[in-house]
Amino acid sequence: MTPFTATRAEGEARLTAFIPRMGRRYANGRNTDHGPGAHKAVSVLSPYVRRRLVLEQDLVAAALAAHGPEESEKFIQEVIWRGYFKGWLERRPQVWDSYRVGLEADLVALDRDRRLRRDVERAMNGQTGLACFDAWATELVETGYLHNHARMWFASIWIFTLGLPWRLGADFFYRHLLDGDAAANTLGWRWVAGLHTRGKPYPADAQNIATFTAGRFSPRPLDLAEVTQGLEASEPDGLPSVLPLRAFVAPQLGRPTALLITDEDCRVEDFDLAALDIRATATLASSHIRSPLPVSDLVARFEAEALADAARRVGIASLAMQAADPAALAKWAAAAGATQIATPYVTRGPLRDWLDQAAPALDAAGITLCEWRRDWDTAIWPHATAGFFKVKQNIPRILEQVALP
Predict the structure, then answer these.
(1) Could you give the CA distance from residue 292 to residue 302 in angstroms, rounded to a whole number?
(2) Which residues in 63-94 are b (16+ Cβ under 10 Å) and which e?
(3) Chain center to CA of 225
(4) ∠ CA(88), CA(92), CA(93), 5° rounding?
(5) In whole angstroms, what is the distance from residue 102 CA to residue 94 CA?
(6) Using CA atoms, how far apart are residues 57 and 68, in angstroms rounded to an integer?
(7) pLDDT on residue 403
């Protein structure tokens, strides 16, 4: 598999190369996992979209221009799924909080339970004896990527066949996926478990795996658990209420500003930087706070490259910071004489948690954390209150709201 180079130029080159396959070829071939080095029917652009080195609206515009709305329909829907998941978690932040608390409890149980620890280690090391599952575990660790269909099968087998805690599986993915995103990863695992769409778990089926791996794997039906119900009994209160979108403050003209670049959005040049009085610029590495456990070197390296590329494109000398002591953020901005920090909007996840922890120190120093929110998110998130169908119905309206290039 071609190594990922974390630059905007590389992402856009990959986008251009995939344009001929955004129509019928994608719709017909997207469900088949041909394995490492052979993911030709899917774009493999997710690590770039995750950091907005490539923008969602650029993907959609390219698909529409090359294939028209009918033939590119499936590709466009899949692009919008990521925005739907991010918006859904923004509207139900309690689900992220519950995941973090539950993961801490699962890690305590893992430390105490020798058998559970053995079984989890075998699963993560690709030593279960189930050929397809073991191959996917190895591919994930070695490349930082998995085909979307393989992610679904893997999660289903982890939860229902191996009987392992779903949050530990979600954490394993989050620590290794180059495109790891708090919303897509958490809600994807919840969807497989029957927690997102209540009572509708995703079953890994032997024939389905054989068909959509083009015969690379042929598990026996008895190798896989029969999935008759999900994990909804573990959350008897159901889904939490939908909340209003989080209020945020936009950067204000005329105030001394510190520009903060994170891997939530590495296209800060899209915003009107020239209108701001920028006194200092910094990149903030945060992939290491995805989990209490060690995060993959591949993930950390991709993040570092993406942040360095973003800083080069801005053309302002920048300080490389790490998300460690939250109070350090206020100290950096104050030392530059800034009264506001400007950064692209940070969605629910570890970095948002860290910024919330930094809030008291920022307040004490008289520094306002300001954010830009993209039109793409503003158009999708109000519809992300239930299942994807509501968003799907509104795709024409969403695309009208967004200025496609």
Answers:
(1) 19
(2) bbeebeeebbbbbbebbbbbbbbbbbbbbbbe
(3) 28
(4) 110
(5) 12
(6) 15
(7) 84
- Neighbouring residues of 319: CB distance < 8 A, sequence distance ≥ 6: 280, 281, 282, 283, 332
Nearest CA among 250, 242, 185, 191 for reference residue 381: 242
Q: In the predicted model, what is the mean pLDDT of residues 242-271?
A: 97
* Radius of gyration over every alpha carbon of the chain, rounded to an integer in angstroms: 21
Q: Kindly list the domain boundaries of the chain, sorted by start residue.
A: 8-90+380-401, 97-234, 256-373
Could you identify the residue written with the tokens 């978690």?
Answer: 89
Tokens of 137: 């575990």
Specify the CATH class of 8-90+380-401 in words.
Answer: mainly alpha
Closest by Cα among 222, 193, 213, 219 to 95? 193
CB 4 within 8 A of CB 142: no
CATH dotted code for 97-234: 1.10.579.10
User: Token pair for residue 32?
Assistant: 């088949």
In angstroms, the CA 88 to CA 96 distance is: 11
Cβ proximity of 367 and 341 under 8 Å: yes
In the structure encoding, which two tokens stand for residue 330, read together?
A: 């206020």
**Is the per-residue pLDDT at 2 higher than 70?**
no
In this structure, which topology does domain 256-373 adopt according to CATH?
Rossmann fold (3.40.50)
Q: What pTM did the predictor assign?
A: 0.97
